[in-house]
Structure formats: structure tokens, C-alpha cells
Specification:
Blueprint: E1 7-8, E2 11-19, E3 23-30, E4 35-42, H1 50-64, E5 74-79, E6 84-89, H2 96-103, H3 108-127, E7 130-131, E8 140-142, E9 148-150, E10 157-158, H4 180-183, H5 191-207, H6 218-227, H7 242-251, H8 263-269, H9 293-318, H10 333-338, E11 342-346, E12 352-356, H11 395-399, H12 422-427, E13 437-444, E14 449-452, E15 455-459, E16 462-467, E17 470-477, E18 484-490, E19 495-501, E20 507-514, E21 518-521, E22 524-526, E23 534-538, E24 541-549, E25 552-560, E26 565-571, E27 575-583, E28 594-597, E29 600-604, E30 607-612, E31 614-621, E32 628-634, E33 642-645
Parallel strand pairs: 13-19, 20-26, 27-33
Antiparallel strand pairs: 1-2, 2-3, 3-4, 4-6, 5-6, 7-10, 8-9, 11-12, 11-16, 13-16, 14-15, 14-17, 17-18, 20-23, 21-22, 21-24, 24-25, 27-30, 28-29, 28-31, 31-32
């Protein structure tokens, strides 16, 4: 695969902007025209596959004849010694997936505008004989005006073509946005499949979520899509207009015949927004050079705190009294900010480290990496998301502070000391915490993301102090494990320690057999679904897979990881070319050894063979040597030659 900085036929590759099943998309510069474009380069391991190359060429032709504002333009296709690629329009802007992740559900008018734009573009593609078959938010870009532009027709099927160009290397579509027809493995999906995906995109745009739990395994997502028992969008967003909701639910019908007849039929039923609402909110677009009033205020507060800290530190070092520092508009700003709570994270080494839990406007903790919350946008900030009680100085800080340096008076003192300033007297009026409750959370396995009352606070093992007594909602998330949600009641002035075990997500196995045959997993027969594929959810670990067909048998051990997705098409009609050789224990070649396959003599070593996919018994014999019999699984990607080591017969 070319690297960033390479030049392909006059196009300099500047950056990778996307990867897919068929190849990689680069932002590039047309050096002749000094114009920014996008290049889609076919993956090297597919370049020698005639079917994929044909699909790639057909895709370019299909896109080139799509001329609509809502579909990315294709300029040309190139075939060089280095790569096969086509040149496309470069859309400068975020994807819908990025926008939904940042801001959650769109405003109803913006979501309606988006739905109309997508239906218009999809309708144009269908009228031109092109299906997308992989519609999802990441394939919808939003230009600088907030208008939707559909890209990546990498799985497009040319309706007008007589050729059946089907994918054999990857599953068509993305699981969470598949139609029931795609989930069931039907090859001849039509425009109704794209409309179902549009319905899922619209549902997420209006509500900020899909109509099923996407944190489960692929198997459970597929099961939810096929069953189609979706709650209406108004269950999550009551403001959605009833006519719009009816169109969305019709698009999500499990029966293709019950969906709108085409994109235009759905479009005709939708109201026209009163205003041309943009999908992009101001905060989702490029940041402005001008600072808002809120940012000025925040910056001023930070500068004030820094100056106060330097002032206090210098005077304390010199043994001078600390004078009051106040602002006319907010006389106690510094003391209020200083009352923020702290969280202590327990590291594996046993070291503790404190960090401030002040929230960003989105509700995430300061410094939190949002990439791990991609599928679950942060919940809106509520009163329960803010720190409960002020923190207090640690014992080590109070022990090192001498009375001459401004130490606080003892609790028994009735009057403040002579060194107490007016600012100190004002701080004494701030409400003190009623408790110092502590919550310690551990998980098996560790390093799980912790959300407390809807806000991310760290990873396990985690200890949080100064919490308000009472119930708190805790959610633990870890890749390849089911999320765990629980309510923990924190006792007043006590430490609550909880440990939770996270259940691994099952692996999902999808098997297609050609011609159809019997599939057994761990000795139990599995029945195929309506599309002919066997789909099963298995626990992590080792599983025995046996497939029997009239043309042969295929058997292997599967080592599955939590959340893994294993897909395999076993085609017993495929033939594999390989070679068989024999050698002595010392490595000396042994020519003219007899080769038998499944009991039939086929030649002498070194021998070239062509065998069907599946299990075969190969026996090698030579006079003066012990014969060797081996059960061999013949597969298209197996290593060759097969080497048999023959030991001399003991005299």
C-alpha cells in the first residue's frame, strides 16, 4: 500500500482519511492543477482478485454517472504499476458520526433537514441504478455549510449490470446499520435495503441513539434488527413530529414490501422544515478566532487563581500576613473554586495521584480522552455531575504549616487569631462538607472505564472521596465485555469498597458452506438461517468446528477471543494446487516415494497435486523407510510444499 508522501501518477498523497474493506482513502494533491482531491486506492491483497478488480472498476463507473449535490463527485480512474485507484472530490468537513458523537441528538428541524437530504441523494443513486449497501453516519460527510454529502460507495451493486459481482472477502455492510435482508445473508438485496439503513440513521439523528443496544455482540445486534421490535423515536425524543416518526418507523419495517416504495415516496410524506436548519451547531464547526464572553471569563478566572497562588505562596514564605483578595463582581470566586472536590486514582504500583474533577461543558472530566466513548456520547451535565463537597487539605500539608505561616486555629478557639484576614473570615462562611464519604471501585478484569452519575471519572481501580452520601449510579465499560450498570449506596463518613466482575462478550461465528452441508460446533448441529449461513454466539475459548458436505469434510479448532467476529466461507468446489515432498530426518530429499491420497496412488515425490478444499488423508511410502500417514486440511491459503519426514527402518 502506498505511503503518505508518495506520488501516484501525478497525485501526492498527503494524509490517510479513511480505510475500508476495499482499500484506503487518502487526501491528495493534484500536482498539475494544485487541487486537493481524495484518492481511493484498492488494497494490495485484492489487486490480484479479478472479482474485486471488476467491482472496483464498476464502482468508479457507477459513481462517475452520479451527478447530485449530495453525492461525492468522481473525476477519473487510474491503473498504474503501483496501484489501482480513482480520484474523487475532497469534502472538507466532519462526518455525521463525528457530529453525533460530539453533540448527541440533532435539533428536530436539523434532523428532518438531514433526512430529506439523504433521501434525495439516495433516491438519485437508485434512479441511476446504484445501491450503496453500506449507508452509515461515517459515510455521510457534512461540508462547510452543514449539507450532507454521501461517500464510499465501495459496496455499490450495479443494478443495470448482468454480472453478479459479489464480495467473497468481506461481509457487505456494517452490522449496526444493516437491513434484515443483509443480516440473513440474502445476495439480491434491492433499494429497500438502503432505505432501512436510512431509517436507522434518521432514528439516531433524532434521538442520539439506535433503537437497540449496540454495546452487545454482533449476534445480538443482528437478532434485534431481524426481530425489528423497535420503540418509536418519540419514546426517547417526544418533540419529533408524528408524521416524521411514521415515516421513520415505515423505513424500519422488517418486511421490505412494507417500506416506502422508493426514496421519493418517503420524501413526499415528510414535511418541509420551516427554516433551513444546519446539522452543524456552532460548537461542532471550526473554532472561531474570537473568544466568547464565557471563554474570556474562564480565562480571567484562571489568571486570577494563578496570581492569588503566587501571592499567597510568597507572603507565606516570608512570614507576612495574607491580605484579602477579592473581585467586585464575585468577592469569593477564589474560595468557591478552591472548594472543588478531588478524585484519587489508585495505580498498580500503589501510588496515589489526585486530579481535579471539574467538568467540561460536555460533562466529561477535564483531560478525559473522548475516543473511548465513541459509541456512547456523554450525558448532559446535571447537578449530580458536579463535585459534591469541597476538598480539605491533606494531613501532610497541615502538618508542615507552622503557626507563623498562617496555620488555621484549633477547633477549640472561640475567636479567630490576630493573623486571620478579612478574606479568611469570608471563607469561614462557606458551607463545609457534611461528610467525607469515600467510594472505592474495583473490577475484574481491571482498567474498566468508570462513569459516576453519567460522567466519566477514571478507570478501575479507582477511589473517589468527598462524595455525597446516598445512592450513586455507576457504569463500568471495558472493551469486549458487557457494560455493567449498578447503583451503589455510599454511607456517610464511611468508605464503601465494591468489586464487580465484568462478563466477556461472546464471539460471533458466521459460516457459509458451498454446497450446503451439515455444520457442527462442539459436536452439536447448527441449523442455517434463511440466507443459508450458520450464525452462532460462542463463549471465548476453544471450539471444535466440523463441516460435512457431499464433496468432503472440513474440521478445525477455533480459538476465539471475547467479542471476536469469525467469518468463513468453506467452498468444497474450490481446488488447491500444492506439492508433496519427502526427506530423511537429516534433511536429505527422498525422491520416488509413493504418494497416496485418500487411499489412491497419485504419483511419486516430489509430486504436484490438485485437491479439493477439505480433509484428505495423505500417505507416503518408500522401501527401507517407515511409511507416514497424515490427515491434512486443504485450504486455499495453506503453505506448500507439504514435507513428510521418513525415518529408516531399523534392522
Amino acid at each position: 500500500m502506498p505511503d503518505v508522501g508518495d506520488v501516484l501518477d501525478g497525485y501526492r498523497l498527503d494524509a490517510v482519511i479513511g480505510r475500508g474493506g476495499m482499500g484506503t482513502v487518502y487526501r491528495a494533491t493534484d500536482q498539475a492543477l494544485e487541487k486537493t482531491v481524495a484518492l481511493k486506492v484498492i488494497a494490495p491483497h485484492l489487486a490480484n482478485d479479478d472479482t474485486f478488480v471488476q467491482r472496483f472498476r464498476e464502482e468508479a463507473k457507477a459513481l462517475a454517472r452520479l451527478d447530485a449535490d449530495g453525492i461525492v463527485d468522481v473525476y477519473t480512474m487510474r491503473e498504474t504499476d503501483e496501484a489501482l485507484f480513482f480520484v474523487m472530490e475532497h469534502v472538507e468537513g466532519p462526518s455525521l458520526q463525528t457530529v453525533l458523537r460530539r453533540q448527541g441528538a440533532l435539533a428536530p428541524s436539523a434532523a428532518l433537514s438531514l433526512l430529506r437530504q439523504v433521501l434525495t441523494a439516495v433516491g438519485h443513486a437508485h434512479a441511476s441504478g446504484v445501491l450503496h449497501r453500506d449507508l452509515k453516519p461515517s459515510n455521510i460527510l457534512l461540508d462547510e455549510t452543514g449539507q450532507a454529502v454521501i461517500t464510499d460507495f465501495g459496496l455499490a451493486k450495479i443494478l443495470a449490470s448482468d454480472a453478479e459481482l459479489t464480495a467473497t472477502h468481506d461481509q457487505l455492510g456494517t452490522v449496526a446499520y444493516m437491513s434484515p435482508e443483509q443480516v440473513e445473508g440474502l445476495q439480491n438485496v434491492d433499494a429497500a435495503s438502503d432505505l432501512f439503513s436510512v431509517g436507522l440513521i434518521a432514528y439516531e439523528a433524532f434521538t442520539g441513539r439506535l433503537p437497540f443496544d449496540r454495546s452487545g455482540s454482533d449476534f445480538h445486534i443482528q437478532q434485534s434488527i431481524v426481530e425489528g421490535a423497535f420503540p418509536p423515536p418519540s419514546a426517547h425524543e417526544p418533540s419529533i413530529p408524528l408524521p416524521v416518526e411514521q415515516v421513520v418507523m415505515d423505513l424500519l419495517s422488517t418486511d421490505p414490501a412494507s417500506r416506502p416504495s422508493d426514496a421519493q415516496a418517503a420524501l413526499d410524506r415528510l414535511p418541509v422544515p420551516e427554516d433551513d436548519a444546519s446539522v452543524l451547531r456552532p460548537e461542532a464547526s471550526a473554532p472561531s478566532d474570537a473568544l466568547s464572553a464565557g471563554r474570556w471569563a474562564g480565562g480571567a478566572a484562571v489568571v486570577l487563581l494563578v496570581l492569588v497562588g503566587v501571592y499567597v505562596g510568597v507572603r507565606a514564605t516570608l512570614g507576612l500576613p495574607i491580605l484579602s483578595v477579592s473581585s467586585p463582581s464575585s468577592p469569593d470566586t477564589a474560595s468557591q473554586i478552591a472548594a472543588a472536590g478531588q478524585t484519587v486514582t489508585e495505580r498498580d504500583t500503589g501510588r496515589t495521584e489526585a486530579f481535579n474533577t471539574s467538568r467540561h461543558p460536555s460533562g466529561a472530566a477535564a483531560g478525559t480522552d473522548e475516543s473511548e466513548n465513541e459509541q456512547h456520547p456523554p450525558a448532559p451535565t446535571t447537578d449530580t455531575d458536579s463535585p459534591r463537597t469541597p476538598s480539605t487539605p491533606s494531613s501532610s500539608e497541615s502538618d508542615t504549616e507552622s503557626p507563623a505561616q498562617g496555620a488555621q486555629p484549633s477547633e477549640s478557639s472561640a475567636q479567630p487569631s490576630s493573623r486571620t484576614s478579612k478574606a479568611d473570615e469570608e471563607r469561614s462562611d462557606v458551607q463545609q462538607p457534611s461528610s467525607r464519604s469515600v467510594l472505592s471501585i474495583r473490577s475484574q478484569p481491571g482498567n474498566a472505564e468508570v462513569r459516576l452519575d453519567g460522567s466519566p471519572v477514571g478507570r478501575t481501580p479507582l477511589t473517589m472521596g468527598n462524595l455525597e452520601p446516598g445512592p450513586h449510579r455507576v457504569v463500568l465499560r471495558l472493551n469486549d465485555h458487557h457494560p455493567l450498570e449498578t447503583t451503589i449506596t455510599v454511607q456517610e463518613e464511611d468508605t464503601t469498597v465494591v468489586t464487580r466482575e465484568l462478563v466477556p462478550r461472546p464471539a460471533v461465528v458466521r459460516l457459509q458452506v458451498v454446497p450446503s452441508g451439515d455444520v457442527q460446533i462442539n459436536g452439536t448441529r447448527r441449523s442455517p438461517r434463511s440466507g443459508g449461513a450458520v450464525v452462532d454466539s460462542l463463549s471465548p475459548g476453544t471450539h471444535r468446528l466440523t463441516i460435512t458436505s457431499p464433496l468432503g469434510q472440513w474440521e478445525t479448532q477455533l480459538q476465539l477471543e471475547a467479542g471476536e467476529r469469525y467469518q468463513r466461507t468453506v467452498d468444497f468446489t474450490e481446488r488447491v494446487d500444492l506439492a508433496v515432498t519427502a526427506r530423511s530426518p537429516g534433511g536429505t530429499p527422498l525422491p520416488n516415494a509413493t504418494v497416496r491420497v485418500d487411499g489412491e496412488t497419485v504419483g511419486y515425490t516430489p509430486q504436484r497435486l490438485t485437491l479439493r478444499v477439505g480433509q484428505h488423508t495423505i500417505q507416503i511410502e518408500k522401501e527401507g523407510y517407515q511409511s507416514v500417514t497424515r490427515r491434512v486440511l486443504i485450504e486455499t491459503d495453506m503453505e506448500t510444499p507439504l514435507v513428510f519426514e521418513l525415518s529408516p527402518v531399523s534392522e
